[in-house]
Amino acid sequence: MFDNERYITKGVNEGIPFLTTIFLWDMIEEARRKTQLDYLQVFELYVVHDDGKPMQKVIHTQEQPPYKNVKAFPCDKPVIAKIFCIDDETHSTMLLASEY
Fold first, then answer.
1. Over 90: is that where the pLDDT of 78 sits?
2. DSSP character for 48?
3. pLDDT range class, residue 2, cuts 50, 70, 90
4. Distance between CA atoms of residues 47 and 86, nearest Å
5. Could you report the per-residue pLDDT of 23-74, keeping only the tens digit for each?
6. What's the rounded mean pLDDT across residues 5-29?
7. Do the beta carbons of residue 12 and residue 85 sit within 8 Å?
8. How does DSSP classify residue 13?
9. 3-class SS at 67?
10. 1 in helix, strand or coil?
């Protein structure tokens, strides 16, 4: 899973910073090393602050087998969003939950 061509939707392209999308794909790669991946990866993005500086908080989950990973990184323009990554065996697509 998730070792094929990768795509992002127009909503992700226009609404999520490029470096954030790279970070999300990297989180999928990290999960691949730790567990078997489900076809659906879920990311919840939040804005947090550390010493007054904006940070992007990401909660990465999947249902089967259960998996959860939480990370935060400095980001000039953090966003609040829910993102799905879906693998259909021929390609992987990152999309906003509202585009599903």
1. yes
2. E
3. very high
4. 24
5. 999 999 999 999 999 999 999 999 999 999 999 999 999 999 999 999 999 9
6. 97
7. no
8. H
9. strand
10. coil
Contact (CB, 8 A) for 72 and 66: no
CA distance 70 to 54: 16
Q: Report DSSP state, residue 89.
A: S
Find tokens 């909660």 and name the residue: 59
85 vs 87: CA distance, rounded Å: 7
Reduced 3-state DSSP string for 25-44: HHHHHHHHHHCCCCCEEEEE
Q: Which residue has the tokens 């953090």?
A: 78
Whether 100 has a pLDDT exceeding 90, the answer reads no
Per the listing, tokens 């989950």 go with: 61
The whole-angstrom separation of Cα 71 and Cα 43 is 11
